[in-house]
Amino acid sequence: MSRTSHPGPGRRSLLQAALAVPAVGAAGAVLGTQSAQAATAQPSTAGSGSHRFDAESPRFALAVLPDTQYLFDADSADPEPLKETFHYLVAQRQEANIAFMTHLGDVTEHGSEEEIGLAADTFRTIHGKVPYSVLAGNHDINSGTDDQRGDTAYLRAFGPQRFTSMPTFGGASPDGYNSYHVLQAAGREWLVLALDWRASEKGLAWAQGVLDAHPTLPVILTTHDIAWAEDNGQAHLSDNGQRLWDRIIRGNDQIFMALGGHYWPPGRTVLTNDAGHDVHVHITNYQDRYYGGAGMVRLYSFDLVRQVVDVETFSPWFLARDPEKRTPLEAETIELTGPVDRFSLDIDFAERFQGFAPVVPPAPRPASRVMPRGTVAYWRFDSSGLAGAGNAGSAVAAGTVARDLSGQGNDLRVQLLHDSAPKALTWSGDHHTEQPAHASLRFDGGKSPDRGAILTTAAQAPLNSLTFTSGFTIETFIKLPEPFEGDHAWMGILSWEGRNGDAGKTTGWSTEEPTCSLNVTPERFLQFVLYPHVQDADPTSWSHALPVGRWTHIAVVNNGHRTVMYVDGSQIARNPSQPATGIATLGKPFVIGGTQFAEQFGQSFYGWIGDTRIVNRALTPKDFMAPFA
Known about the structure:
elongated, alpha+beta, 10 helices
């Protein structure tokens, strides 16, 4: 933490004056061994011993450790809080999927040989178990110097030679005070750029070289002094932070987060870079708290599924103590829950990184690659499966044929309902990212007035009579419009036309109900109703409410005994336990875009339907058309 003058108004008197004691020594020989062109880290899934890190999981954590200087302060030093923090990070590495830890500087109070030595020894607790970076704060070196200061006790203990064995270490500047690490997390690489308390012109040029050498990596910049905050937590760039912003951050879109310590209170702000994108700037410092912050650490938990970063701040040292024996100060410092200490950042990572690392969507997969053994029907609506496909918004006329690409002869033919206009069914290039074909059909079904379209197999199609007594898998992709306007209750996605009463079924809601149908309820739940070929039953699966404006993959799997529905590769909760062997198909046509009720009650599908596949056996999620981890 700095005791130099604060650049903005209203700073507390504790932030004034007194420079750190200068450190002395000679430069180490290792300083020039690695450059910005150093090889990137190798992917790793293991920590030390049983504390494994999963580099492919879409969820991982970055541990951020600010000013620990009061724990390494001459003869009042106490390394135990920091040791406990390190023990926690090692023990929780697998559970929290901790990828990395970064220290924000001011490791010690005076930068003396004794303080630095004790700190270096304390860091052995985590060394080789969780990769980490350290940078110099103004209390670790002569604060009147920049990264060209030469040898110091800090450099001898925390220079490049300390990190060369880490798989994440990418290199250091020739002076040794700036470094970078490349992490493998969430299936991609991330770069942590650790800059000295005062980066010189040479240091900034080196940093730009690192960025230039890794142009597609998202970057978290760490340094000691970047911003100060008002008492309400609103952060502002410091003088040094403004220099870093102007010289490095604003012009490099890769840098999406910049973290510093030095000042208190903690705070945060969001700035806009030259590309028009957000940069999250945070101050993390707890040395003003009880016991010098007690080794308090922040976890930045990245969740690339939810598109958020969840931030929490706590002291493992106090957390480890018997709750009955905690003093009041210990109890109130276990975790900080104010808006600058516990919060979430909404980040659409694909969109934020689009400018320098655009997501390349998968290319269309040919039909031959998505027809596993037992495929009895496969329809897709690109040019390989639908005549005239390719003109977005063009009407798909009545009588148009959608070919069954499995070669089993189950072609579909378009039928308009209720004297609907041709635009009741149109071609679209919209599709699920992981869908094999990059095309779909847009159904404009609705009520009042009744309108819509369906696609049906011919009267003698083989699919009409298959009973699937050994099991089946039915898959499709759908998207509901946003906004979801009008009454579309119980609209059908697909079905067999036969009535269950004609199959001799006496249970169920109505003997007029199709023998098998996938529908959408008024609450946008999926409903899969099955009247088995064997049992007199109507086992029904019910999903959660579907989102609008987003593609959804649906799979219904029957193993010959029981039916299970999956949504986006996840098994839903409300799958029936009733036995279900086969489908009472009755030789009636198969329908996409509705049910036999569509003509009677006026509702065919409203939204998009993409690739649809039926397999004459049970598949596992790893074999679905869309890959799910």
